Amino acid sequence: MSDFNELTTEPIDIAAVARRLVPPECGATVTLDGYARRFTKDKATGEVRETEYLVYEAYEPMALKEMAKLASQAKSQFEVSAIGIVHRLGRLEIGETSVVISVAAPHRKAAFAACEWLIKELKRTVPIFKKEVYADGEAWSEGDSEDSF
Amino acid sequence: MSDFNELTTEPIDIAAVARRLVPPECGATVTLDGYARRFTKDKATGEVRETEYLVYEAYEPMALKEMAKLASQAKSQFEVSAIGIVHRLGRLEIGETSVVISVAAPHRKAAFAACEWLIKELKRTVPIFKKEVYADGEAWSEGDSEDSF
Amino acid sequence: MMVQVLFFGAVADAAGIREVEVEVAAGVTAGELVESLKAKHPGLAGQKLLIAVGQEYVAASTPLEPGCEVAIFTTVSGG
Amino acid sequence: MMVQVLFFGAVADAAGIREVEVEVAAGVTAGELVESLKAKHPGLAGQKLLIAVGQEYVAASTPLEPGCEVAIFTTVSGG
């Protein structure tokens, strides 16, 4: 059972991602499906902003390398058997899936923990960039990286 | 966006469950896909047992009531927008999905926490019963309920 | 008075039945019904049992109503 | 020596370019290259920048090799 990491400009089929990972020693797959949200509340002002669509771009070869590193780190930290990560690029309409992370494990606890860790780290280290387009403008999203200089 | 709780003897389409829940204020859906495991390690002896197939039965009207209670409790405890729970009944081949729990939330943290809480509680309170069939016998699975008498 | 008793999973196998109508004295409790069922169906002895009346979990001390639906099972094991 | 510089996301918009070949002195560090790019592309000033060389994150003090691929971007925002 091999892991997979992919970037695609096509719509992502969540079930196809999740069901590529069913090792015989496993009993649970936890899947995070992240998608384009129409309404976002500003944490500071409480104001609600409406997004029209998103555009993602990536430094593709490095993004794939970083995704593979995360999968390998997750497998050394958590008791999980297989990991699939697929990230969408290009223009995404509201409600379309931007990222799917599926983790199969013998027991669900490790699958939950690894999946949550993977999405946190993906948002911090994988060179993918999100532009939010509103009715009256657009903005590149600010991410979570800490090691910038 | 309404929640749903279902019991079915048909194979479960994970993506169809997850994608019935995409409220416009949401950005993440976390899905637990539980399925029939072929190999199970006995925690006490370390021995590995091979399962041929599973049979689930339920006290159906009560199971649906308990599932609805769990969804309602989860929505009061976690910041989540929608919950879908589908449990399979009847005979399941190895690798087939027995339960899907999908939780959509504005932010992923609450979705992970609610999904993990829901499966733990489902295994404790919802009257569904699993029989494991081996090459040389069968056994009803022991669950996690504590309030028996 | 009559009550309807449903058995599930391991309990149905142990009792050898899935459903039965039982005549009980007025005011009998859920726990007392379970004890009388254990006496009748020795396979139930030693099992940890959960009991639901009207599709809600109840304590052993809960008195039964005429015509109620009582369900008996061991620890649940869905998921 | 020549190095290849790639810009992504907000940094590409701020610099007004996505890719450029740059002549740098031998032994120049990643951080020094970023400073010289900030001088040339004022839009980059004040941005938090990450830098990767050969598709690996590097510290500002890392010396560049001839012909290497340098990528510059702000905090990533996938997911």
List the helices and strands and how they pair.
The complex is a heterotetramer, with two copies of chain A (149 residues) and two copies of chain C (79 residues).
Chain A: E1 4-8, H1 14-18, E2 28-35, E3 39-41, E4 48-58, H2 60-77, E5 82-88, E6 90-93, E7 97-105, H3 108-125, E8 128-134, E9 137-140
Parallel strand pairs in A: 1-5
Antiparallel strand pairs in A: 2-7, 3-4, 4-6, 4-8, 5-7, 8-9
Helix pairs in contact in A: 2-3
Chain C: E1 2-7, H1 9-15, E2 19-23, H2 30-40, E3 50-53, E4 56-57, E5 69-73
Parallel strand pairs in C: 1-5
Antiparallel strand pairs in C: 1-2, 3-4, 3-5
Textual characterization of the structure:
The complex is a heterotetramer, with 2 copies of chain A (149 residues) and 2 copies of chain C (79 residues). Chain A is 28% helix and 39% strand. Chain A is of the alpha+beta class. Chain A has a single domain, classed as Aldehyde Oxidoreductase, domain 3. In chain A, strand 8 and strand 9 (137-140) form a beta hairpin. A 5-stranded mixed β-sheet of chain C has the order 2-1-5-3-4. In chain C, strand 3 (50-53) and strand 4 (56-57) form a beta hairpin. With 79 residues, chain C is of the alpha+beta class. The N and C termini of chain C lie far apart (37 Å). The interface between B and C is medium-sized, with 32 and 25 residues. Strand 2 (28-35) of chain A pairs antiparallel with strand 2 (28-35) of chain B.
